[in-house]
Every structure is written in C-alpha cells, then in structure tokens.
Structures
1.
Amino acid sequence: AAAPQERAQAPRDALEHLLAAGMAELLGRASIGVDEDFFELGAHSLLVIKLAARIRRLLRVEIAPGVVIDHPSVTTLARAVRAASADPAQTEQLADTWRLEAEAIPS
C-alpha cells in the first residue's frame, strides 16, 4: 500500500505568503504549508506575540495574540486578518509589496 502523500500546501496569495514566511522564520524552518498547525510545529506564547506584532507592523491590522491562537494555520489566520482589516484590498497590497521586496533580497 502506498503511503499517504504529505506535501505541504504552498501559499495561494500574497497574504498567505507573508504569514507562512513569518511563521516559518519564527519556527526556524525553511517553510511551512498553509494548513499546518503553528503549535504542532513547535510554536509557543512568545512566538504568538511576535507574530501578532509582525502582522500589526507589516499589514497595519490590529490582531490580538488570541486571534493567532484561535487561527493556528496560515489559511485560517489569513481569513481572520482579512476579516479584521478595515481595508482588505490595502492589506493584500501591503502583503504583496512585502513579498516583492523579500524576493528582491538575495539569500
């Protein structure tokens, strides 16, 4: 019998890309899939606070740490960030600008 394929789902848009990169960086990983659980991958309360602060700083969206706890995957957190945003189009534009700048920096 074939083993179930466990491939991490890649980010589908700029906001998911930003959140996945932020979570992966905080966890010391190269990447994470959009449906992986931040806590199952090793996150703890300090990382939650750092991620919420990063979202506030980069996207200008007020997100309490509890929102990250309640939405532990990139997919669910992206949905929560969009819901909390006063201007979801601007939030996506800020995320896209961040992504383009990050890609321009050589590793």
Note: The longest helix spans residues 88-104.
2.
Amino acid sequence: VVQGNVPIRRYRRCPMDTVAGVSRMGEFLFENSVDISEGGMKLDVNGNYRVGEQIDVFFFVPSGRFVRATCEVLYLLEVNERRQIGVKFMQPSDKCTGAIREYVAQV
C-alpha cells in the first residue's frame, strides 16, 4: 500500500530480539530476530538466502509461546556489515497469528 510516494506497512512492526531456528534445504540454522509483525519478520542471518526461497522459522515470542511459520524470503539487506532478510509468513496458523498479535499488542 502506498500513500503519496511513501509505502505504508500493512502491519505494525515491533522489535523482537530472540534466537530463531531456520530450516531450509535440508539444513537447520540459528539466526537472530530483529523485529516482527503479524505479516512477517526481519532476521539477522549468517546463512545465504535467496529472494523467493521458502523456509520454516521456529521461535518463542517473549511471552513464552512457541511459533512455527512457513515463510517466503522477500528481501536481502546489508546493514552495518550485518546481513538481514525480510520474510513474509505464508498462511500462518491461527495459533501463530494469535501469539504474534498478543506480543505486538503488549509492546
């Protein structure tokens, strides 16, 4: 969605610093979350990802609820010598959406 020339996010992003497990192409990696919204999340990564790649992400929101989500990698960034990816949750379960919505509402 765009307002004027400025893109408007569909969901509010909140900072979230936690370890996230990522399963992709037969390997399992530990990455670190940067922020989250009901639509997706940003991760600091060590692995090499491609835009369009499908991955499974596993993490606990700070309330202690466990989340597993299938995601699509939307973008790759280099920020202060750190690599980051932005992922979109693909058809998240009600349990996943509820845990994230609860966390975002508290922040």
Note: The chain has a mean pLDDT of 91.
